[in-house]
Amino acid sequence: MRAHGVDLSLWDVSFDPAKATGQIDFAIIKASEGTARDPKFAEIWVGVQKVPIRGAYHFLRSQLGWKAQADFFLSAINNCDLHFYALDFESKYNEMSAKFADMAHMWMDYVTQKTSKLVLLYTNPSHYDADLFPYGDWMRDYPLWIAQYWMNNPTPDKDPKLPLNRKRGDWTIYQYACEVNFKGHSNEYGAGANSIDLNVFNGTVADMRAWLQLDALPPPPPPPPPPPPPPPPPPPPPPPPPPPPLDDTKAAQIEIVDWMIAQLNAKKDELSSGSGPIGD
Predict the structure, then answer these.
(1) What distance in Å separates the CA atoms of residue 153 and residue 156, rounded to the nearest whole number?
(2) What is the pLDDT of residues 25-77, one digit of tens each?
(3) What is the C-alpha separation between 6 and 50, in angstroms, rounded?
């Protein structure tokens, strides 16, 4: 099954993946446009950081220098734990030209060099064919995030119609649903607006993690070992040794002393009773 994701901006009002009933394996947040931060970035980031795979994108404006925009984007996402980035290249608010196409190229090269992370190109088939390819084929060096909607039956299982200059299957993320063809489903994905943009990765969640060179999810820690048994009670102290035996000489001496004491006691008793002999 393909990995499923959402992309979010101020138009989504809020985002809480804990309230979602739809599948969310990755989320892409709009960080900046021109040299301005998305007004809902901080609020929406609270929810995005709870999603296992996270990306951020910048909406490129033709009226401003590409480097100033790239540096602003990098500062906007500086303290965020993100796994990939994207550049949004479209005609809204912009003047489509060879210069603008070159700006996109330089922005993507620069952010790739500064971050050493993957950077996707977000656009639709018509912009790719009419506003990028006439000025070079550098887009092949970058993974493609393509926006293309099947109006009658938006489904994550279909493949997108690609630009004329991309081979079949040569896409990385496919934005298959938005407010144009999928209104009224935002609450299924934890958003606070009436609609939400839905995407799929061209592979499974494991494929996406491998593409981003993310480690496999760590196994749960083993249970702690049981406490050691209490030590056995100490043995009772040994009995005192018997007194050494008396030799014969000492025994005889003790016997004489005992006899003398007995004689003295007898004499004492005789005198105290008055029955002894009377002297002259």
Answers:
(1) 10
(2) 999 999 999 999 999 999 999 999 999 999 999 999 999 999 999 999 999 99
(3) 13
What are phi and psi for residue 214, nearest 5 degrees? -90, 140
Q: What angle do CA 236, 238, 241 make, to 5 degrees?
A: 160
* Nearest CA-CA partner of 136 in 169, 177, 108: 108
Please provide the DSSP assignment of 99-148 as one string.
HHHHHHHHHHHHHHHHH-S-EEEEE-HHHIIIIIGGG-SGGGGS-EEEE-
- 260 to each of 125, 267, 273, how far by Cα in Å? 133, 11, 20
Alpha carbon 7 to its chain centroid, in Å, reads 20
Contacts of 27 (CB under 8 A, 6+ apart): 5, 6, 7, 8, 15, 17, 47, 48, 51, 53, 54, 55
Q: How far apart are CA 1 and CA 229, in angstroms?
A: 50
Structure tokens belonging to residue 163 = 């630009």
Q: Give the C-alpha distances (Å, rounded to integers) separating 214 from 113, 134, 195, 208, 276.
A: 19, 36, 30, 9, 119
Q: Is 12 helix (H, G, I), strand (E, B) or coil?
A: helix
0.70 surpassed by pTM = yes
Residue (of 173, 183, 175, 120) closest to 147 by Cα position:
175
Give residue 99's identity as a one-letter amino acid code. Answer: K
Distance CA 252, CA 228 (A): 61
Average pLDDT, the chain: 91
Quick one: tokens of 126?
């018509």
